[in-house]
Amino acid sequence: MKFQAEIDVMPKKEILDPQGKAVSGSMKNLDLSEITHVRIGKHISLEVEADNEAAAHEKVEQACKKLLANLIMESYTFNLHQA
Amino acid sequence: MKFQAEIDVMPKKEILDPQGKAVSGSMKNLDLSEITHVRIGKHISLEVEADNEAAAHEKVEQACKKLLANLIMESYTFNLHQA
């Protein structure tokens, strides 16, 4: 079975996010000062071939831990659905 | 009212995604060859102060169009919920 995973990798709350800070600042110059607390991370979409949803879940966990997220600075969340 | 927006900005389907291609390749070396079609974009979370959800929606649309997404190469989706 094929599953589609949608993963968000975000900088941890305690970690400064300079890119997000810069964007927050730019919002003021664009007359969008109502927008604050911008944080920027990665969004990753991928396909997994697995026998069942639990196996697909495990594969995506491994991919996040080994490659996609730097667990010292980032945390990840994802959801899976059948493709 | 305060709203929290979660925005995904992804490279358009027709656009080559070299970062995603590189990650797809690396999956093989990590014994995760079941993972394919990796595409990598940005995930942005932010807060909007607005009178109602429609106004917040409009603000986030503007932010995406003016700053967060390059509409030539990227498309965006987002959802809003009250913070």
Explain the layout of strands and helices:
The structure is a homodimer of 83-residue chains.
Chain A: E1 2-11, H1 18-29, E2 35-49, H2 53-68, E3 74-82
Antiparallel strand pairs in A: 1-2, 1-3
Kindly report the average pLDDT value of chain A.
96
CATH-level-4 superfamily name of chain A: Phosphoribosylformylglycinamidine synthase subunit PurS
How would you classify the helix and strand content of chain A by structural class? Answer: alpha+beta
Strand content of chain A: 35-45%
First-last Cα distance of chain A: 8 Å
Number of strands of chain A: 3
Estimate nothing, just give the exact number of structural domains of chain A.
1
Tally of separate helices of chain A: 2
Low confidence ranges of chain A: none
Can you walk through the features of this model?
2 copies of one chain form a homodimer. Chain A has 83 residues and is an alpha+beta fold. Chain A has one domain (2-82): Mth169, Chain: A, CATH 3.30.1280.10. Chain A contains 2 helices and 3 strands. In chain A, strands 2-1-3 form a 3-stranded antiparallel beta sheet. The radius of gyration of chain A is 16 Å and the shape is elongated. The mean pLDDT of chain A is 96. Chains A and B meet through strand 1, helix 1, strand 2 and helix 2 of A and strand 1, helix 1, strand 2 and helix 2 of B.
